[in-house]
Design a protein that fits this description.
158 residues; alpha+beta; 5-stranded antiparallel beta sheet
Length: 158
């Protein structure tokens, strides 16, 4: 086989094929950001819920190890937040609402609620619902043992 015949067998991509691939890649690049931004609010609230649970566990551990009660104050007004021992303020994601139910009543968003952990590991207990659009997460604090659990979408709790 001569060099000319060999060159005819080797083919590359045509300009039209390259333009079609670039057009498809451009459409995908335009479609992906809205899909990602639709997921972010749910993940941001989930992260804030996990951070709340970590803060509550740390407060419980502090109460046990130091032998003094530790208090977490929840404030439901915008921006919703909680404060540990009147020192460390943690803001919840923008647009998130806070609903708290104790064993005997439901706390409205305007009234601050104080959750206490005692040196024996117990607490005054509460169910804390974090809600943002269609995403709901509940952090349950057991009054007897102070155990902290996270659950997703429990509409029957509130």
């Amino acid at each position: 086989m001569t060099g000319r015949a060999k060159a005819k067998l080797v083919r590359g991509f045509t300009l039209l094929e390259l333009l079609v691939v670039l057009a498809i890649a451009g459409l995908l690049m335009a479609a992906v950001p809205p899909l990602i931004s639709a997921v972010i609010p749910g993940t941001e609230l989930k992260g804030a819920t996990r951070q709340l649970a970590v803060s509550l566990r740390h407060a419980r551990f502090s109460a046990i190890s130091r032998g003094v009660p530790v208090e977490i104050t929840f404030i439901g007004t915008e921006p919703a937040r909680y404060v540990i021992n009147d020192k460390e303020e943690q803001l919840l994601p923008r647009g998130a609402t806070l609903h708290i139910r104790t064993h005997d009543n439901e706390v409205t968003g305007d009234d601050p609620f104080r959750l206490r952990f005692y040196p024996d590991g117990s607490s005054n207990g509460a169910n804390i619902l974090l809600r943002r659009k269609q995403h709901n997460y509940t952090v349950s604090v057991d009054w007897l043992m102070g155990k902290i659990r996270i659950s997703q979408d429990e509409p029957n709790v509130f």
